Backbone:
């Protein structure tokens, strides 16, 4: 039988991370302030609230929407969002006729500048394996029911292109300001596994 | 390579559940693994494709047992050992010492980073050669199954799709991950019908991937 490649007393991940840090510090290869700065940036500043601003602007500014769908990277950069895993962002529009959903089957590529680091389910085998084979079943499981005639398009992020979804604006939001709209937009809707709820 | 990482279409993983709320990092060690992973190309003199390949090469048990950031932690160690920044076994030996075991740590080796310099930052490149394929062309994916890194998933190999868009040219992961060449080339958004991939009983949908020119051949 193939053996598990670890002895029973293999140090756990937390201890190995501490060990790696200690070795890198000892060799003068890392600066703890930079490490903490990077962590804090992705905990606080880079996340789905960025993408929500992009979506709300596209819903309220037709010119911006056009630019966003033509050249996602440039239109997103207009709002100050750029950086690693955002070298080339393509924006896809969801509506009643077409439902797009995004995955990375080979690793967990994700548009960091607009959505931050990927959530657990996006990185888990169940989502990565199944959404390219039975997307309608997966979407139903996470609460997205589709009409039979809705066209489903699945996008597997196999190059450095990153996909970002412009969800459908919910009914009854005509009177809301851009900022109020942004507060409605969910991460899941921008990946294609949810819809923006009617407020 | 056909490793555990190539998950598209594999079966038996169970239901997809989306937690209502979760922190960016569920434990402080995950945050550290992320930071070291983000720095790994610089620390090892390697690149993003080499980082992915260090994950491809993980034993399936190691790949799964500590989740996504366990993979990052593992790949950083592999990259640093491959570039001789750390000795094999150095991380585990240090971890054992940290918990009070009396183990001998291997001395740090002399670094030997790959003889490699990127021609620009990132992966997108400007190239002069015209695209081999046009929007609307039917193409067949190759069936290559080489031992190295590739971004042509198993479930898409040997299938016929249609070019829907031409993406910016990018370095070819298959050679870039191994420091052989950037081999920048055109990338095409190729759409496949679900029945082409999964048979006549498949759900009705289209699957689109961005595929490097070397992965494609014309269908005449």
Residues:
């Amino acid at each position: 039988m193939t053996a598990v490649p670890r002895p029973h007393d293999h140090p756990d991940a937390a201890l190995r991370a501490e060990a790696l840090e200690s070795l890198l510090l000892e060799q003068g290869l890392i600066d703890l302030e930079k490490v903490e700065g990077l962590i804090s940036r992705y905990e606080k500043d880079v996340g789905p609230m960025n993408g929500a601003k992009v979506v709300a602007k596209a819903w309220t500014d037709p010119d911006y929407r056009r630019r966003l769908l033509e050249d996602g990277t440039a239109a997103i950069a207009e709002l100050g969002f750029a950086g690693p895993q955002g070298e080339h962002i393509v924006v896809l529009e969801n509506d009643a006729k077409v439902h797009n959903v995004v995955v990375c089957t080979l690793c967990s590529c994700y548009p960091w500048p607009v959505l931050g680091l990927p959530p657990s389910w996006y990185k888990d085998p169940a989502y990565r394996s199944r959404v390219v084979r039975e997307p309608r079943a997966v979407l139903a499981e996470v609460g997205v029911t589709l009409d039979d005639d809705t066209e489903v398009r699945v996008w597997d992020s196999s190059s450095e292109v990153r996909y970002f979804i412009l969800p459908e604006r919910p009914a009854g939001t005509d009177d809301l300001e851009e900022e109020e709209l942004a507060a409605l937009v969910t991460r899941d809707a921008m990946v294609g596994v949810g819809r923006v709820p009617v407020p | 390579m056909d490793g555990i990482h190539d998950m598209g279409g594999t079966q038996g993983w169970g239901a997809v559940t989306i937690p209502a709320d979760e922190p960016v990092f569920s434990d402080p060690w995950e945050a550290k693994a992320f930071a070291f992973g983000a720095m790994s190309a610089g620390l090892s003199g390697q690149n993003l494709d080499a980082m992915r390949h260090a994950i491809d090469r993980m034993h399936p048990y190691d790949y799964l047992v500590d989740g996504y950031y366990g993979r990052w932690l593992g790949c950083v160690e592999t990259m640093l050992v491959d570039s001789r920044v750390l000795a094999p076994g150095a991380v585990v030996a240090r971890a054992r010492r940290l918990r009070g075991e009396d183990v001998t740590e291997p001395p740090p080796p002399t670094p030997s980073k790959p003889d490699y310099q990127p021609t620009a930052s990132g992966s997108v490149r400007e190239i002069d050669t015209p695209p081999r394929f046009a929007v609307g062309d039917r193409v067949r994916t190759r069936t290559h199954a080489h031992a190295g890194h590739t971004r042509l998933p198993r479930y898409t190999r040997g299938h016929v799709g249609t070019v829907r868009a031409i993406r910016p040219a990018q370095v070819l992961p298959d050679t870039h991950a191994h420091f052989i060449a950037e081999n920048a080339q055109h990338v095409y958004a190729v759409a496949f019908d679900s029945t082409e991939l999964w048979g006549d009983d498949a759900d009705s949908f289209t699957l689109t991937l961005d595929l490097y020119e070397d992965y494609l051949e014309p269908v005449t």
